[in-house]
């Protein structure tokens, strides 16, 4: 049995792409091989962006709770007061401590004042 050389086993013309194939498939690989010009965001940048979004969302929640709690002093004190207190607690837990505490305080005072003062008013009159 004679050993055949690799070139005898495979015809190079079959495996090599023709000029026609090269013209048909003009793909560019530079983007995969090139080093990026700008460094990719590190984990700290991504974490800082996420923290910024959470802080922004907690501020928005805190302001919404404060507006609802202030509205509870004029319209539907029990419903809006308790709602403002609950949303204020959510804002407090998310990190907007000051707005959360103010919302909880104003909302619960409005609800408690209505539940205490209205029965007293009707008891006196």
Instruction: Please tally the helical runs, counting DSSP H or I stretches of 4 or more residues.
Output: 7
Along the chain, the helix and strand elements come as HHHHHHH
Q: Give the radius of gyration.
A: 35 Å
For the residues shown, what is the average pLDDT? 80
Report, as a whole number of angstroms, the end-to-end distance. Answer: 122 Å
> How many distinct beta strands?
0
Secondary-structure class: mainly alpha
Largest sheet descriptor: none
Identify the overall geometry. rod-shaped
Strand fraction: under 5%
Helical residues, percent? over 70%
* Residue runs with pLDDT of under 50 for 5 or more positions: none
Keywords: Membrane, Transmembrane, Transmembrane helix
Protein name: DUF4190 domain-containing protein
Explained architecture:
This protein has helices spanning 6-9, 12-15, 19-24, 30-33, 43-71, 77-94, 97-124. It is mostly helical and 125 residues long. The protein has a domain at 58-125. The protein is rod-shaped. The model has no long low-confidence stretch (mean pLDDT 80). Keywords: Membrane, Transmembrane, Transmembrane helix.
In short:
The protein has 125 residues and is an all-alpha fold.
Q: What key attributes describe this structure?
A:
mainly alpha; 125 residues; single chain
Protein topology:
Elements: H1 6-9, H2 12-15, H3 19-24, H4 30-33, H5 43-71, H6 77-94, H7 97-124
Helix pairs in contact: 5-6, 5-7, 6-7
């Amino acid at each position: 049995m004679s050993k055949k050389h690799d070139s005898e086993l495979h015809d190079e013309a079959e495996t090599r792409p023709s000029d026609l194939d090269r013209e048909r498939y003009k793909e560019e690989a530079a983007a995969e091989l090139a080093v990026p010009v700008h460094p990719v965001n590190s984990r700290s940048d991504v974490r800082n962006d996420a923290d910024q979004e959470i802080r922004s969302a907690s501020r928005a929640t805190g302001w919404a709770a404060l507006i609802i709690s202030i509205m509870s002093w004029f319209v539907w004190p029990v419903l809006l007061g308790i709602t403002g207190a609950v949303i204020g607690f959510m804002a407090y837990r998310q990190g907007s401590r000051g707005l959360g505490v103010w919302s909880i305080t104003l909302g619960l005072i409005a609800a408690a004042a209505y539940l205490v003062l209205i029965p007293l008013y009707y008891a006196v009159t």
